[in-house]
Amino acid sequence: MNHASNPVPDRGAATAPHGLSQGVDHYENFPVASFLCPPALRPAIAAIYWFARTADDLADEGDATAATRLADLAAYRADLAACAGGQPASARWAAVFARLQPVIKQFGLPVNLLADLLSAFEQDVVKTRYASQAELLDYCRWSANPVGRLLLHLYGVHDAISLRQSDCVCSALQLINFWQDLSRDIPNGRIYLPADSWATHSVDELQLLALQVNPATTGLIAANVAWAQTLMREGAPLVKTVPGRAGWELRLVVQGGLRIAEKIEQLGFATLRERPKLTAWDATVMAWRALWM
Q1: Is-contact 4 150, C-beta < 8 A?
Q2: What percent of the chain is helix, strand and coil (3-state, nearest 5)?
Q3: What is the CATH number of the domain that holds 274?
Q4: Which domain covers residue 267, as residue numbers?
Q5: Phi and psi at residue 191, in whole multiples of 5°?
Q6: Cys bridge to 260: 8, 86, 216, 277, which one at CB 3.0-4.6 A?
Q7: 11 occurs within a structural domain
């Protein structure tokens, strides 16, 4: 996976959605942190963030072999189990689990959601192609959606409709990240555009690997951006359920994702060549739109 900055993080957070610090330059599913984040929850959100970021590094940073990465993630998973059981973790990631253990205890944090994130990192080590939209959404179910559900848990929101809406927002953020970062991911060997849509748009893998910008590839990207926008709008009513300052934070996250999708469109969907970025003006637009949600 990759890095995060701006309300829609660089890829990889996805990716998810309601949480950490803007300016944190890494794990994609923690897009924003601001004064809007409830102060009482900041230590818990930080603990989750560092857990995810450290696992992301194990899966993606440096030049370790796939076997080494998977072994490290297995050891990390064992430390999570120890931490959740009230036992000391190994010395290797002591700082991460020292932060996380009291949060699990204080908030009754669903440890299975933390374990789901590790499954996504393990998948990223070995899988570089996705056959369909359904397969991509299954990846988001592990890589992005758990973060939203963890944050909803902290906010005390547990109903089924809100969880489904959170999944839509998180998955949409992850997908928008993918379409934003094609010029980075494909040279690194990862193609997140669903393969079954290639043929629909008369695109083959060689065109994508060559980062060819032509009517076929831009049409392919446009269709996938529209899919992500639809998912985001399906989840957007969640902003009226999440309480207080966190709800306003979520409004900015949703608008950040939609704004990145707009910027992709403004580039003519040519993200095989260029990566769109948010500017200070975009932040103003997002804030205005958030106000009117």
Answers
A1: no
A2: 65, 0, 35
A3: 1.10.600.10
A4: 39-291
A5: -120, 110
A6: 8
A7: no
Please give the pLDDT value at position 245: 81
- Give the orientation angle of helix 215-235 with respect to helix 244-266, to 10 degrees: 160
Q: How confident is the model over 216-249, as pLDDT tens digits?
A: 999 999 999 999 999 999 999 999 898 888 888 8
- Is 40 in contact with 174 (CB distance < 8 Å)? no
Q: Which residues of the chain have pLDDT under 70?
A: 1-36
- Coil, strand or helix at 81: helix
Residues 7-37 pLDDT 10s: 333 333 333 333 333 333 444 545 444 556 7
Dist CA 54 CA 124 (whole Å): 14
Q: Is residue 247 part of a domain?
A: yes
Phi, psi torsion values for 213, nearest 5 degrees: -100, 110
Predicted local distance difference test score (pLDDT) of residue 126: 95
Helix (H) or strand (E) holding 7: none
The answer to whether residue 9 sits within a structural domain is no
DSSP for 128-158, written as a single string: -B--SHHHHHHHHHHHTHHHHHHHHHHHT--
> Residue 129 has what DSSP assignment?
B
What is the H or E stretch that residue 282 is in?
Answer: helix 280-291
